Amino acid sequence: MRLQDKVALVTGGGRGIGAAIARRFAQEGADVCLVSRTEAELEAQAQWIASQTGRAALPVVCDVSNPADVERAVAAAEERFGRIDILVNAAGISVAAPSTDLSFDRWKACLNINLDGTFLFCQAVGRGMIARGQGGKIINITSVVAHAGIPERATYAASKGGVRQLTQALAVEWAKHNIQVNAISPGFIMTEIVRDYIRRGIHKPEKLVARIPAGRMGQPDDIAGPAVFLASSDSDYVTGTILIADGGFLANGYV
Ligand code: NDP
């Protein structure tokens, strides 16, 4: 129970990586506020958390790219639980298109959700953490595309590169408030985003797996353990770090 009686807010908590992190946090003793745009998914995760862990789960429908929505979500969590100790920014979308065809609207939509949404939640939650003076943990989900290029991912890569640098900027700025700001760069994790790319032929799993030293695609739970570490007191002297969880994909100089 490494997060006993902590309060966490997890964006993208309705499914995939965010849901796996929210569930694991509750199993480690935290109450959790779950944020996304799909109420039914949030309700399902909240019910699982309540029934399987006995911890409180608050579902809040919110578009992370909408500043008023973000303020409302953070206020709802703070009103219900009194504070937020841990923020995880896992809400995100991916866009794949040849850069010559990428419309400006799609370019902006990806940046709005992945980068602006991450900043808005860091800002709104960070304000409360600083005002309460009890420190806190912020974990942003970036990607291997923040470290190495993948063709036809211009806006996704720009958004995730931005999240990586935002993480380091806030880590340095808020270290004096005892707020640790870190990020996780997942590799290829079997969630709806990746399943959709496989269905559309954008990802070829056998080609990817051949390039991953671990010999398999990741599962959402593979990201939950690193998130618990970064949310717990075990990482109190760790800030501004980008933890790569990719089965060795980026380290691989072979193939
Ligand atoms: P999923 O599509 O399974 O989950 C994405 C989550 O983000 C959903 O809960 C979705 O809910 C939410 N979300 C998307 N847009 C918004 C929005 N505007 N406002 C609020 N919530 C939103 O994908 P993953 O779990 O794979 O992705 C989670 C994060 O991990 C993303 O940031 C992604 O970029 C990152 N990532 C994923 C990798 C992978 O291989 N799967 C690899 C590297 C990084 P809803 O649509 O209902 O709002």
TrEMBL record:
The organism's place on the tree of life at top rank: Bacteria
Keyword terms: Oxidoreductase
SUPFAM superfamilies per the UniProt record, alphabetical: NAD(P)-binding Rossmann-fold domains (SSF51735)
Gene3D superfamilies the record matches: NAD(P)-binding Rossmann-like Domain
Domain Ketoreductase: 6-187
GO annotation, biological process: bile acid metabolic process
Protein's UniProt name: Short-chain dehydrogenase/reductase SDR
InterPro entries assigned to the protein according to its UniProt record, in alphabetical order: KR_dom, NAD(P)-bd_dom_sf, Sc_DH/Rdtase_CS, SDR_fam
PROSITE patterns given in the database record: ADH_SHORT
Any GO MF annotation of the entry: oxidoreductase activity, acting on the CH-OH group of donors, NAD or NADP as acceptor
PANTHER family reported for this sequence: 2-DEHYDRO-3-DEOXY-D-GLUCONATE 5-DEHYDROGENASE, SHORT-CHAIN DEHYDROGENASES/REDUCTASES FAMILY MEMBER
Membership in a protein family: Belongs to the short-chain dehydrogenases/reductases (SDR) family.
The keyword Nucleus is annotated on this UniProt entry: no
